[in-house]
Write a structure and sequence with these properties.
TIM Barrel; 2 domains; 6-stranded parallel β-sheet; 15 helices; binds zinc ion
């Protein structure tokens, strides 16, 4: 429902030509784009997961569109300086890829190289080390495998029959958002239980999808690549005690230094919405010496932006059309008088 409304709004902006008409006033100084997986097939039945994957062909389209709109693609590290400069020049775009998926190397990197486009890869140490599961994918796969489930949660039992595709889609969506409301431990325990029932091997999946440190070492040598930190275990930081949250942030920077020999200045909040990262985290990241940190709160960049709470626009798998992205980066959907 929510996605249908967004699509309608973007279509309207595009059909009426509002994006081109208003962009000079609403697009801000530039934009940071978020990518997750880049690969040819996306069979996800959960919209929240389908959104996290685009095809290599669409990545090409995105880069072509940015060029056509005369955006300058700059490294994320150059964003603070660009925001400090007087406005009036070309808008800029910084490209960011979260989590460290191997398909970023296999499918996205050749395209980025062809366009000479710098980018930042936010690495989660627990994925590189195969110790943290990709719970959102395990949840989807478990429900796809199971004909039904019964799960005891702190606020009661959730039970569903999941034999047909329609039943699976409905139950999955409900379960996803119900679990997202809990603390990190409850969410992870519930997904582990379901994954076991479905006979899944969550850590084998991480190994199949994410680059390990050795692969990341080679990947990071590309002159277009910058590595950023993305915690140790990919938790929603705002749900954790302050000490644990701090250790997650600082620890991920330490692991990158130890394994890749790099000093990272950029951080991405896992999940990154207001329930996952708030004022406490923005301050924590600044105290730890990061120069910038990105959320997933949608928006374009304006001078005076808080550097550890930068908004980003997701290049979303559910909206793989040039005119949707053009409407989004015009800033019009986020414009407030
Ligand atoms: Zn992430």
């Amino acid at each position: 429902m929510r996605y249908r409304m967004i699509r309608l709004a973007l279509e309207a902006i595009s059909v009426l030509g509002l994006d081109s008409a208003f962009a000079p006033r609403t697009r801000g100084a530039g934009v940071i784009l978020t990518f997750h997986r880049v690969h040819p097939d996306n069979g996800s039945i959960l919209p929240e997961n389908a959104g996290l994957s685009i095809t290599p062909a669409f990545l090409e389209d995105v880069l072509r569109l940015l060029r056509a709109l005369e955006y300058e693609i700059i490294p994320l590290g150059a964003v603070p300086q660009r925001l400090a400069e007087p406005s009036g020049g070309r808008p800029f775009a910084a490209l960011t890829f979260d989590d460290g998926y191997r398909d970023n190397r296999d499918f996205a990197l050749p395209i980025l190289q062809r366009h000479n486009a710098p980018f930042t890869l936010f690495v989660c140490a627990g994925f590189a080390e195969r110790t943290t599961p990709l719970w959102w994918l395990d949840l989807e796969d478990a429900v796809r495998q199971l004909d039904g489930f019964r799960l005891a949660l702190p606020d009661g039992v959730i039970e569903a029959r999941t034999q047909t595709l329609a039943e699976k889609m409905t139950a999955l969506r409900q379960l996803y958002w119900r679990l997202r409301a809990f603390d990190e431990e409850t969410l992870r325990a519930a997904v582990t239980t379901l994954a076991h029932q479905a006979g899944l091997d969550p850590l084998a999946r991480v190994a199949a999808l994410c680059m390990d440190w050795q692969e990341l070492r080679a990947f990071a040598t590309d002159p277009l690549a910058t590595i950023g930190a993305h915690t140790l275990t990919h938790p929603r930081l705002a749900k954790l005690d302050a000490g644990v949250a701090r250790a997650e942030i600082a620890g991920s920077r330490d692991r990158i230094r130890e394994e890749l020999g790099l000093e990272t200045k950029a951080f991405a909040y896992p999940v990154g919405d207001p329930t996952s990262a708030g004022p406490r985290e923005f301050e924590m990241v600044r105290d730890l010496g990061f120069e910038m940190a990105v959320t997933t709160v949608p928006g374009v960049l304006k001078p005076g932006q808080m550097m550890t709470a930068l908004p980003r626009i997701s290049v979303n798998g559910l909206f793989q059309k040039e005119h949707y992205l053009r409407a989004l980066i015009s800033g019009l959907p986020f414009w407030r008088p």
